[in-house]
Each structure stands twice: as C-alpha cells, then as structure tokens.
Amino acid sequence: NAAVGRFQIALKCFEKVLEIEPRNTAAMHNLANCYKDLGHLREAIKNYKILIKFDPSFYEAYYNLGNAFKDSRKLKDAVIAYKKLLKAKPKHYLALNNLALVLKDLGDLDSAITMYEKAIENKPDYSEALMNQSFAYLAQQNFADGWWRYEHRLKNEQIRLTVADIPSQPEWKPDLGGRVLLWAEQGLGDM
Predict the structure, then answer these.
(1) Number of neighbouring beta carbons within 10 Å of residue 135
(2) Dist CA 82 CA 73 (whole Å)
C-alpha cells in the first residue's frame, strides 16, 4: 500500500531528525502521529507520552494521545488525556466531542450530552457533534431531542455526501395525515 510506504518513510525521516535534534517537538509529534496512522497504537502512545513529558505545554499531543487511547479502547486513559487538554484549552471543540464519544462508550450519557453541548457552544456549526449528541439522546429514549439533532446531519455537506440520496419530498407533519415515505439509510430507525 502506497500510503503505508509513505508513513514508513516519514517514520525514518522523523527518527533521523530526532537523532540530529533530540529536542525537536514537532518531529516528536509527527513521529507519534505516523505510528498512530500506521495503527501502531502502543508506539504512538509511548511517543505522545515522551513528548508530553518533555513539553507539557504541547497541548495537541494530549488530544492525539486521547485519540490513540480511544482507538485502542483504553477509554479511561482517553478521558484523562482529553481532560488534561481541556483544562488548558477548554474551548477545544474536537477534544470536547471526542471526550463525549468516550463518555458515551463508558455509558455516561448525561456527561456525554453535556460535552457535546460544550463542543457545539464553541463551534455552533459543528454538525458532527450534533449528530453524535443525537445518538446519546436516542440511547436515552429522548426522541424529541434525538431526532431533531439527527436531522441536522443533512445540513452538513461532508456528512450529507455519506447519506444515501434522499428523495426530495416535503417534510412529513404528523397532524396533516397522508402518506409517509420511509427509506433505509444507516440502520438507526430504518424500516
């Protein structure tokens, strides 16, 4: 695979940079990112930790460490990493969203919904957080809030491209009667 080959070349380059400049935090971060992108999560986590120990103010390393922990299903460690970042950068909407994803996976739906709300407060057009929040509301059987937020995904062009072509029909209003057109999309609530 060409992408894998490029990451392996990049790994060697960043290792060479660190031989010459062992204090180069950008190279440390990029080395860890390469390991993560290659799926070598243990090595990525090790290198993010080294970077954070060397430079505790390199905040993006906490975010990527949290992501590596999340990807390796070390969810409690991911929570710790995201919270350390958010202590310094409370408006980091990506970390707020990812912390919420982890909290949802841990079964703490109320806290997840709160974190999604904070992500949306910091980036009001963040459709991914609205969609993720919808899943948490739906898991709580709060259908009014859940379906409204789930519908918001259609306003985001990137998400909309992944959704099957939706027929252009008027929105159904329950008090008007008539027929309802249903179509399969991605499994949640499909008929």
Answers:
(1) 18
(2) 14
- Nearest Cα neighbor of 51 from 69, 82, 26 is 26
Contact between residue 99 and residue 85 where contact means Cβ atoms under 8 Å apart: no
Whether the predicted pLDDT of 184 surpasses 80: no
Nearest to 92 by CA among 65, 50, 67, 60: 60
What stretches of the chain show up as alpha helix (H) in DSSP? 2-20, 25-37, 41-54, 59-71, 75-88, 93-105, 109-122, 127-139, 143-151, 157-160
> Tokens at residue 186, please?
């991605």
Q: Which residue has the tokens 């252009």?
A: 168
Name the burial class of residue 106, with classes exposed (0-12), middle (13-18) and buried (19+) by CB atoms within 10 angstroms of its CB. middle
Which two structure tokens, joined as six digits, stand for 135? 């899943």
Rounded to whole angstroms, the Cα distance separating 150 from 64 reads 27
> Distance between CA atoms of 187 and 191, rounded to whole angstroms?
8
CA distances, 1 to each of 5, 8, 14, 92 (Å): 6, 11, 20, 34
Q: What is the pTM of this model?
A: 0.81
Q: Would you give the DSSP letter of residue 162?
A: T
Contact (CB, 8 A) for 103 and 115: yes
- Please write the tens of the pLDDT for every residue from 4-31: 678 888 989 999 999 999 999 999 999 9
